[in-house]
Amino acid sequence: MRIDADAHVVENDATWRDMPADRPLGFRPPSSDRRFWFIDGKVRGLGARVLNPEQMAAFSSATGRDVRVPEDSRDFEDVAARIAHMDALGIDVQVLSPTIFLEQVADRPEVEVPLCRAYNRWVASLAEAGKGRLRWAVVPPLLAMDEALAELRWARERGACAVFLRPIEGRRLLQDPYFAPLYRMAGDLDLPIVIHVGNACPENKDFVSQYHPGSAFWKFRLPLIGAFHALVMAEVPEAFPRVRWGFLEAGASWLPVVMHDVRRRLAMSGRRVDADFLRSRRMYVACDVADDLEYLARQVGEDNFIIGTDYGHADTSSNVEALAELRGRTELPWVDKILSANPRRLFGI
Questions:
Q1: Is the CB of residue 136 less than 8 Å from the CB of residue 15?
Q2: The total number of structural domains that make up the chain
Q3: Dist. CA 303–CA 337, nearest whole Å
Q4: Could you read off the pLDDT of 274-323 as tens digits, one per residue?
């Protein structure tokens, strides 16, 4: 079983069909290839690039990474089309992550709660139609913790295999005690926490944009690396021993640098980094086919890497052929661990 650990849904009008009122209004600015949403008086959500076939082909040619997906598959107008493309790519299961929720979507719980509910019900219906081929991460409305816990219970009963978080959640980092009830319930429900590249702190994003407009690296990737470091240093995995943790879409080349820093800091308090540091803390990192996987395996072992395609997006992480390319790495005798055993363990598949 080959598992794409990070595939996306690109939300559309059907996503919000279960909202009784005040549904998001989608729009594309003139001369833009990005789709945004108007929510509660503000432009919200990551602007997903919506490319036509010619644009996808040009992007793929320019970057050397294939991002071409059928439009009805990307927008989930046709679940069968998505499954057929997965078959063509040699993918048995995709774990679905959102697009709009990579950024903050609401300032108020009374707005965020119905948005998350509608999204979760929509993606659950897609997964049900996928008959086991499509799994999904529940998006909790974190501005209202009681509602977030209720969504976890609802989602677990309907086949969710993970809880989706961003590296920065509003004005809180993920080691904040505020999240303890969420982590506790995730452990009780056997739902891993998957932390996806993103940023739900508008102040942080706006500050970076003043000096480096358009820098996804500063705004989205670095926060994920920081979240890994912060969770380790705060000993959150030890505090919640039933929780598994995934870190998606930043590659894995950063791991040796971060682990070097962790070793030095832990040593100052008499603690040490053991050889199976990631495995003992149940922490999994999505690698990139361009990573030096032999070197990374020597540094941290090969039992905690997974891989995703970023299916549906067109950015620096996207490569729908990622799993096929990894299968071709014949010099890596443990490649099937990344494709199957490791993600099955993370997601409980």
A1: no
A2: 1
A3: 7
A4: 778 999 999 999 999 999 999 999 999 999 999 999 998 878 788 999 99
- What ranges make up the beta strands (E) of 128-188? 134-138, 162-165, 168-169, 172-173
Scanning the structure block, which residue is given the tokens 């030095």? 264
Q: How far is CA 324 from CA 21, 116, 246, 330, in A?
A: 43, 33, 22, 12
Angle at 81 between CA 75 and CA 85, to 5 degrees: 100
| pTM attached to this predicted model | 0.94
Containing structural domain, residue 255: 3-347
Instruction: Please tell me the number of Cα atoms within 13 Å of 111 on its side-chain side.
Output: 14
Angle between helices 180-188 and 145-157 (to 10 degrees): 20
CATH number of 43's domain:
3.20.20.140
User: What are the backbone dihedrals phi and psi of residue 135, each rounded to the nearest 5 degrees, phi first?
Assistant: -115, 170
User: Burial letters for 88-105: b for 16+ Cβ neighbours within 10 Å, e otherwise?
Assistant: ebebbbbbbbbbbbbbbb
Q: Using CA of residue 274, residue 276, residue 279, residue 284, what is the dihedral sign?
A: positive
Structure tokens at 285: 């990192």
* CA pair distance 99, 80, nearest whole angstrom: 21
Q: How far apart are CA 231 and CA 82, in angstroms?
A: 35
